[in-house]
């Protein structure tokens, strides 16, 4: 069961790019913030798409916090409390030294959206990943050092890329895992490869859901692959997120789905909004059925 004092960490991951993973992560994060949660969007993807989708340039803010966590020990977490200022880190509650709390505060991007902070990604994350491998830092060790950074928030949304260190780190941090899967060729293999990593890390008890994306109604490939997902992961399958030209245009304006007039005026845009809202309300928030702990086993 869920601990009401636990920070919800939603990790979006799949062993393949081009599945609308960043789009999904950003819009889930903003939806949570609109529901009066204090949310941190942590971009662990070297492409830095989360910043772009919110109208910012990719930068090194997430890697700065990762490097801070990797150097020296972070004090043990001593409990979570709501800070007086929603944009002010409480170093005592977060278990950070004053210097570390200041470093995190300086790295944060306040997005101008109520309750939503961003740690943006950039290509520098690749260099960080290489450094961690060369130093033989274990993702599990860094995960424990990073958790105090999340303490002032109600929810953390992590966007990560297919890769060794950062993907494993994001999975280890997760309280729930979301696997966005484009309804195209080899969908089952992509999901199973990612689930194999989850289980190899000993995280098989972490609830996970499968979210079909880029679905095109009436196209044989989309419909056939959606059927495969439904047969194999029926109990973990969230509502399908359709392909939408209106959604595709959102980054050009630095808008999320919840801010875009084009999305509101588009049938597929509204369908995408409804699917993401259902993902948040029915599958990610506390109280979801224990059935989420299972994994699909069909062929």
SSE diagram, text form:
Elements: E1 8-12, H1 21-34, E2 39-44, H2 49-53, H3 61-70, H4 91-94, H5 98-107, E3 109-110, E4 116-119, H6 124-134, H7 139-150, E5 155-160, H8 165-173, E6 176-182, H9 187-200, E7 208-213, H10 220-232, H11 245-248, H12 250-253, H13 261-264, H14 267-284
Parallel strand pairs: 1-5, 1-6, 2-4, 2-5, 6-7
Antiparallel strand pairs: 3-4
Helix pairs in contact: 1-14, 3-5, 3-6, 3-7, 7-8
Structure write-up:
The chain has helices at 21-34, 49-53, 61-70, 91-94, 98-107, 124-134, 139-150, 165-173, 187-200, 220-232, 245-248, 250-253, 261-264, 267-284; strands spanning 8-12, 39-44, 109-110, 116-119, 155-160, 176-182, 208-213. The chain has 299 residues and is of the alpha/beta class. The protein has one domain: Rossmann fold (3-Layer(aba) Sandwich). A 7-stranded mixed β-sheet has the order 3-4-2-5-1-6-7, sandwiched between helices. Strand 3 and strand 4 form a beta hairpin. Helix 3 (61-70) packs parallel to helix 6 (124-134) and helix 7 crosses helix 8 (165-173). The longest helix has 18 residues, at 267-284. The chain is globular, with a radius of gyration of 18 Å. Residues 73-94 and 288-299 have low confidence and may be disordered.
């Amino acid at each position: 069961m869920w601990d009401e004092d636990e920070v919800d960490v939603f990790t979006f991951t799949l062993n393949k790019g081009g599945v609308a993973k960043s789009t999904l992560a950003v819009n889930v994060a903003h939806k949570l913030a609109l529901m009066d949660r204090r949310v941190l969007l942590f971009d662990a993807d070297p492409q830095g798409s989360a910043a772009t989708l919110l109208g910012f340039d990719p930068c090194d803010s997430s890697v700065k916090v990762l490097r801070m966590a990797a150097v020296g020990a972070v004090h043990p977490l001593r409990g979570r409390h709501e800070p007086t200022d929603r944009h002010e880190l409480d170093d005592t509650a977060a278990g950070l030294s004053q210097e570390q709390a200041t470093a995190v505060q300086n790295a944060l991007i306040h997005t101008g959206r109520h309750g939503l902070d961003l740690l943006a990604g950039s290509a520098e994350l690749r260099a960080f990943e290489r450094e961690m491998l060369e130093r033989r830092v274990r993702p599990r060790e860094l995960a424990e050092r990073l958790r105090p950074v999340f303490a002032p928030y109600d929810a953390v949304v992590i966007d990560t890329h297919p890769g060794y260190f950062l993907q494993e780190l994001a999975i280890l941090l997760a309280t729930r895992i979301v696997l966005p899967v484009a309804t195209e060729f080899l969908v089952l293999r992509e999901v199973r490869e990612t689930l194999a990593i989850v289980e190899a890390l000993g995280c098989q008890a972490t609830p996970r859901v499968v979210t079909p994306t880029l679905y095109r109604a009436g196209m044989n490939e989309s419909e056939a692959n959606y059927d495969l997902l439904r047969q194999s992961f029926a109990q973990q399958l969230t509502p399908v997120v359709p392909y939408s030209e209106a959604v595709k245009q959102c980054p050009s304006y630095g808008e999320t789905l919840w801010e875009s007039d084009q999305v509101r005026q588009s049938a597929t845009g509204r369908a995408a909004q409804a699917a993401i809202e259902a993902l948040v309300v029915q599958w990610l928030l506390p109280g979801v059925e224990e059935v989420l702990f299972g994994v699909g086993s069909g062929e």
